[in-house]
Amino acid sequence: MLASRLVALRSAVSLSSRTFCISSSCHQGKAPDVNEVRNRLREIVGASTNWSDHQQAMEERTSLSSLLAKSQDDLPVKTAKDSYTEAYLPLGSDPTIREKYLNYHNSVRFGRILEDLDSLAVLICYSHTWNKELQRSPLSIVTALVDKIDMRKNIIYPDCDIKFTGNVTWVGKTSIEAKMHMSQFHEGAYSPVLDATFVMVARDPENKRAAFVNPLKAEGPKEEEDFRNGELNKNRRKELSKASLLKVAPTADERTLIHSLFLNTLDTQTVSFRSRKLPPNSVWMEDAKMKGLEICHPQERNIFNRIFGGFLMRKAYELGWANACAFGGCRPTLVAVDDILFQKPVEIGSLLMLSSQVCYTQDQYIQLRVHTEVLDPLTGQHNTTNVFHFTFRVDKEVPAVVPRSYGESMLYLDGKRHFDETMRGQA
Questions:
Q1: Sign of the C-alpha dihedral, residues 301, 305, 307, 311?
Q2: CB 247 within 8 A of CB 107
Q3: Which of 74, 160, 328, 355 has the fewest other C-beta atoms within 10 Å?
Q4: Does the predicted TM-score (pTM) go above 0.70?
């Protein structure tokens, strides 16, 4: 049994009560115990679990700017082996942590898994950039976006050990792509549960400007293919950004679709564009939303004194799940997480406003968009921080969601684009 070699510990990237056992090939070559891992990861950036000490440590990081590379050529080339990391979540071996991950359906809270993936992605990238000659890393590595999370299994057992593996697969000048895989020990073997791709960015010690990261050398056909796919992913994101409905008009086919939806809502008893009627088995988009509010306390801070990205993902997922559950009338199953964009950091003390919207439906599928923004209570100013896209599936056909305004029509088309992209990836 794995119990003899799995150790529970608290995630060092999120300073909240997370639980891991981590083994990384780039440090001590063996699975360290709780204190060794905590101390090692605190040393990487000089973080502290004490709030007042943590603030002082962040101020002292400014002196590390002189350690930053002037160009990428000044940094040693790394390989995928340097960043390869395994992390065990001993739900079966250590029952004491199980309740933190348990939901009332006797399954695992996926929002907690999102937190763990975000922590692991940061650790993987620090493993890639680590300089053993330095006591602390001058880099601030933060999550830029979650490119994709594809579910390979719908059931996550609450009493079976979970293993995360991952490594760096692509590197730009200041950005890093990390791929991770999650599997679970069940019936005598590990079976795959999900695949995740995160894109991280390196910043200076004060998290104000970009910083160079070590180049990556691909060794062997598999790593070369991963690197090519990373480059393709970067180019795909650029093209999607150029085609964003916030920048350019919908395509001809999309305009035809929206006009057809509009005509389908006109009241045939009147000759008026203003007389709108909901078609059968449909729901107005404005009636398919759900909202939430979070006060961002220091407990949820990351090692850079901002709100932990995994916490934001967990809250967005849980709101999206609740919205899909209410809309579909039954418990939804996650199919994919797509294109989570981290636009701005969330400061401690912020009022975080979350808005979930069902954007598109098809057969048994629900496409959701969760928008988060911070509110400054003194000025009343709203600033978008994150946009999340989730695809859920339920066990029955769901109503069609119908836009009423032009803005809602754009949300509908954007949701359809994300859904179509997810379905292509599932094929």
A1: negative
A2: no
A3: 74
A4: yes
